[in-house]
Design brief:
By secondary structure, the chain is of the alpha/beta class. It is built from 24 helices and eight strands. The chain binds iron/sulfur cluster (2 copies).
Length: 405
């Protein structure tokens, strides 16, 4: 492996949510790059693998690094050299990826609900990150996954435009109501969102685990499906968007697939951009002086650090005229979900999440919202863990609710 030219300036330590929670220098980008340079993956012990799993791939370090080191890429390359079940919680991460390879299985777990939690939970140790995920399924109402065809009544609008949609498997199989809200928001504006049931998982979990081959396989399937239509592709999950944008890098060495990947990425549109483009959000008429909804918008790290998109979603909320947006004094923070990080490092993930939830609850929000399925699940669990009545909802659900007030 080539030596990465880290200046050891420490700028990354100040922004790393994992290091801030654990207090360990080895958890910073600087620490991990140092280990890679002096030891290399050939000497990977269980401890070494554990240190490399302690990264959310949030991108905060790369965004601030004066040497512009793509730290996520370096760490994923290192993880690629580990066995798929290496390190603490390795088998659980492996199992989660297997589940995502057949996203319909998520629907099965959702239908199983609390019975599934009891059944599988009996075999998992108390510290297991997967145990946390199973609790999530127990909370989800049983039901069918989100359908390709609309269940909304025909709007009878002329010049209806059909736009391709990448809804993401977590939303499709675990929280289909958020997708119903996306579809409903656009349907009133002569936009029909359509997707193919043949879409695969975006491949983020494989890529984050270092399984580049698995991520490419899912990428090829998605490219083939998305090529079947022209025009924009709306993505309603920030994590999926980040992974789809990564496809050209994923296929860098394969000229034909690289070109096809670039064509797809040039068509990607983030959810709130499409709202803006079609002027979907309109001011609502306030009924009483104090009826503003107190909303905390959580910025998914994948948008905050990779795309530097911070305000577009807030702007859509503001446009409704019925919202007071709440902010933390120290600015947006990571929720600790990080793809499979919550499974690999449940304690650190839980600490990051619980501190954020506690700080946000002091702002007394009516609702917490975001546009990433992973963050949403993390928030739902965090709020449930402290018995809060505050709910976490996808931005589409909140905008729909504001429209209805
Ligand atoms: S910010 Fe970049 S150069 Fe500075 S210590 Fe971190 S990885 Fe190294
Ligand atoms: S990607 Fe995020 S969690 Fe990982 S080392 Fe960088 S700042 Fe820390």
């Amino acid at each position: 492996m080539s030596q990465v030219k880290c200046a050891k300036c420490g700028a990354c330590s100040a922004v790393c949510p994992v290091c801030q929670s654990s207090g360990q220098e080895s958890h910073t980008a600087r620490g991990k790059l140092h280990l890679l340079n002096v030891l290399g993956v050939a000497e990977a012990s269980t401890e070494f693998v554990d240190i490399f799993s302690a990264c959310l791939l949030c991108g905060a370090c790369s965004a601030i690094c004066p040497r512009s080191i793509d730290i996520s890429k370096e760490l994923v390359n290192a993880r690629n050299s580990f066995s798929s079940v290496a390190g603490p919680h390795g088998y659980e991460k492996y199992l989660a990826r297997k589940l995502l390879a057949v996203p319909e299985s998520l629907a099965g777990l959702r239908v199983l609900g609390s019975a599934g939690e009891k059944l599988l939970g009996a075999y998992l140790p108390k510290s297991s990150g997967l145990r946390l995920r199973l609790a999530m399924f127990a909370d989800a109402p049983s039901g069918q996954p989100f359908r390709e065809k609309s269940s909304l009544p025909s709007m009878q609008l002329e010049d209806t435009k059909t736009i391709s949609w990448f809804p993401g498997c977590a939303a499709r199989y675990i929280s289909p109501t958020s997708l119903e809200s996306c579809r409903s928001l656009f349907a009133n504006h002569a936009v029909t969102l359509t997707f193919s049931g043949s879409l695969a998982c975006c491949g983020l979990a494989d890529w984050a685990a270092g399984d580049v081959k698995g991520a490419r396989k899912k990428g090829r399937q998605n490219i083939q499906v998305l090529e079947q239509r022209d025009g924009p592709i709306m993505v309603s999950c920030a994590s999926c968007l980040a992974q789809l944008q990564r496809y050209p890098t994923l296929f860098a060495g394969e000229s034909e697939w690289l070109q096809r990947a670039e064509n797809i990425t040039s068509r990607l549109v983030e959810f709130s951009s499409l709202l803006e483009e079609h002027e979907v959000v309109q001011p609502v008429e306030l009924k009483t002086k104090d009826s503003k909804i107190r909303v905390f918008y959580h910025d998914p790290c994948h948008m905050r650090h990779n795309d530097q998109i911070v305000d577009r979603s807030r702007e859509q909320l503001r446009k409704s005229g019925n919202v007071e947006i709440l902010e933390l004094p120290d600015g947006p923070r990571c929720c600790g979900q990080g793809g499979l990080f919550h499974i690999a490092q449940p304690e650190i993930s839980g600490r990051i999440r619980d501190q954020l939830v506690a700080d946000v609850l002091t702002l007394q929000p009516d609702v917490v919202t975001t546009s990433c399925s992973g963050c949403l699940m993390q928030w739902q669990q965090g709020l449930a863990a402290v018995g809060s009545k505050v709910k976490a909802k996808h931005l589409a659900q909140v905008l729909n609710k504001i429209k209805a007030t």
